[in-house]
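Input (structure):
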């Protein structure tokens, strides 16, 4: 299989994206970790890629659970429930599976908030825009799931109080993202190709475990990743014109 970074679209897009990240860091922003996207089989086939795309996360994008976000002026807002993978050790490129497992210190829930303001079939442009990233909500980290262990983990996604998706076993949880350990290894390898690295203290949100939830003002999304934690986000109602 051809390495993802040898795709000219990915090479150019990642170079632009990571230059943007360096500019943010130079301006005083703090790193949080990395995000993956388009890792589902259908998405990879549509984009003609063989591995998920990778973007970056900054601490300034982090919001507490229960936050309300105004999206009335956004192009196409989406909420994506994801598994957050926390790293307790640096992970070099070309690490084997056992090394990657040993680097994972815990798992937790995440909801990424994105605004799809650019055609997703433009891989280079999507990467250059950091894959639509706007905000992220995180929950508690559970060290009982160090090593990426998903046994006993289930998810339920509620939209406006009604369940819209669920997954109750490891295979279902990874159906749209791929294997968590492979995801971590891919991220380390891709970043190394562009002079970056996975470091202890960083996290990876591993891609949406459901199809994207296209949200509108006034809605609420709640994500239960049992037995770890439950998190939620609200979207501010559409503002009314003053009389």
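Output (sequence):
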């Amino acid at each position: 299989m051809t390495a993802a970074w040898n795709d000219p679209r990915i090479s150019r897009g990642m170079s632009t994206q990571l230059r943007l990240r360096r500019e943010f860091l130079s301006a005083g922003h703090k790193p949080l970790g990395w995000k993956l996207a388009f890792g589902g089989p259908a998405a990879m086939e549509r984009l003609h890629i063989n591995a998920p795309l990778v973007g970056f996360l900054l601490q300034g994008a982090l919001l507490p659970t229960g936050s309300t976000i105004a999206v009335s002026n956004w192009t196409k807002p989406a909420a994506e429930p994801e598994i957050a993978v926390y790293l307790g050790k640096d992970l070099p490129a070309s690490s084997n599976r056992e090394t990657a497992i040993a680097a994972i210190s815990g798992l937790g829930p995440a909801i990424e908030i994105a605004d799809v303001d650019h055609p997703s079939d433009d891989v280079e442009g999507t990467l250059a825009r950091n894959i639509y990233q706007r905000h992220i909500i995180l929950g508690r980290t559970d060290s009982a799931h160090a090593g990426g262990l998903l046994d006993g983990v289930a998810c339920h996604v509620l939209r406006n109080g009604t369940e819209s998706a669920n997954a109750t076993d490891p295979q279902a949880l990874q159906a749209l993202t791929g294997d968590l350990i492979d995801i971590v290894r891919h991220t380390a390898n891709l970043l190394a190709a562009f002079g970056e690295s996975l470091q202890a203290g960083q996290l990876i949100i591993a891609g949406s475990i459901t199809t994207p939830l296209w949200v509108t003002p006034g809605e609420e999304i709640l994500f239960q990743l049992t037995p770890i934690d439950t998190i939620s986000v609200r979207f501010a109602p559409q503002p009314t014109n003053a009389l």
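Notes: The domain at 4-235 is CATH 3.90.850.10 (Fumarylacetoacetate hydrolase; domain 2). DSSP finds six helices and 13 strands in the chain.
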